[in-house]
Design a protein that fits this description.
Blueprint: E1 5-7, H1 12-21, E2 26-29, H2 33-40, E3 48-51, E4 61-63, E5 69-71, H3 77-82, H4 84-89, H5 91-98, H6 103-106, H7 111-116, H8 125-130, E6 135-137
Parallel strand pairs: 1-3, 2-3, 5-6
Antiparallel strand pairs: 4-5
C-alpha cells in the first residue's frame, strides 16, 4: 500500500469539503471492505482517505422522518440482517444483507458502501428500491 493523507471529520459538511479538495484522488472510508482491496491491489490512486465512521449521525436504524424507516449509510450489514423490526417488516432487505460475503464481511461492510460502490453485487439495492416509499437511507 502507498501512503495517503488520513482525515476523520466530525461532520458531514467537513467530509464533503475534504472530498472537494481533490475528488479524483480522495475516497471515503466507511466499512472499507472494497476500498482496502482496491488499495492493496493498487486499483485506486488514493492520496486522501476520509474516514466517515466519526460522524455518528450516519449510523443507526429507526423510524422517521414521518412514517418512513431510516437506515444510516454507515449501518453495518450485520445490523440490518439481525434487526428484529426490520426482520418483521422488511424480510427481503434482511435476507439481502445476509448474503453479502460471510459474517466477518457483514460485521464490517456498510449499507451505504453496498449501495454506492458501483459493484454489480449491490445486494441491498433491489429490496431498497422496492421499499423506496418506506425507507430513507441517509
Amino acid at each position: 500500500m502507498h501512503s495517503f493523507a488520513y482525515h476523520a471529520p466530525a461532520t458531514l459538511p467537513e467530509a464533503i469539503a475534504l472530498m472537494g479538495r481533490d475528488p479524483a484522488h480522495s475516497r471515503y472510508l466507511a466499512g472499507g471492505t472494497d476500498l482496502y482491496l482496491a488499495l492493496e491491489h493498487r486499483l485506486a490512486d488514493v492520496r486522501t482517505l476520509i474516514d466517515l465512521k466519526t460522524i455518528g449521525t450516519l449510523e443507526g436504524i429507526g423510524v422517521g422522518p414521518g412514517p418512513a424507516w431510516r437506515i444510516g449509510a454507515l449501518t453495518r450489514l450485520a445490523d440490518v440482517e439481525r434487526h428484529p423490526d426490520l426482520q418483521r417488516w422488511f424480510p427481503a432487505l434482511c435476507a439481502a444483507a445476509a448474503v453479502v460475503g460471510g459474517p466477518p464481511v457483514r460485521n464490517r461492510a456498510t449499507l451505504g458502501g453496498n449501495l454506492c460502490n458501483a459493484s454489480p453485487a449491490a445486494d441491498a439495492a433491489t429490496p431498497l428500491l422496492a421499499l423506496i416509499h418506506r425507507m430513507v437511507v441517509s
